[in-house]
Design brief:
This protein is of the alpha+beta class. It has one domain. The chain contains three helices and three strands, in the order ββαβαα. It has a three-stranded antiparallel beta sheet. The protein is flat and about 60 Å long.
């Protein structure tokens, strides 16, 4: 069964934490929006994960959020590519 990842980042008046809600929503459940009168082939359930994220240290907040929100990637490959590009630029000068 195909599913789609959804993420919602919620902030409130709490100055210490924000919350990331993550779930994989089955296609059969999303199809209900196109065909509300047709029941799904099987009952759909959704498991929701809640991640508490501390604002501090602020210096790392952006990186921490990106690692949680963006799809999983091989980050060391991206970093390695950047280093290789930087080395190529250094050799040209």
């Amino acid at each position: 069964m195909t599913s789609w990842p959804f993420k919602v980042l919620c902030i409130n008046e709490d100055n210490e934490l924000m919350h990331l809600y993550s779930a994989n929503v089955p296609s059969s459940l999303l199809d209900k929006f196109d065909h509300p009168s047709i029941p799904p082939p099987q009952p759909a359930s959704i498991s929701i994960q809640i991640t508490a994220i501390h604002y501090k240290p602020l210096e790392t907040l952006c990186d921490r959020l990106l690692s949680l929100i963006l799809p999983a990637t091989d980050s060391h490959k991206v970093e390695r590519k950047r280093k290789m590009e930087d080395e190529d630029e250094d050799e040209d000068t």
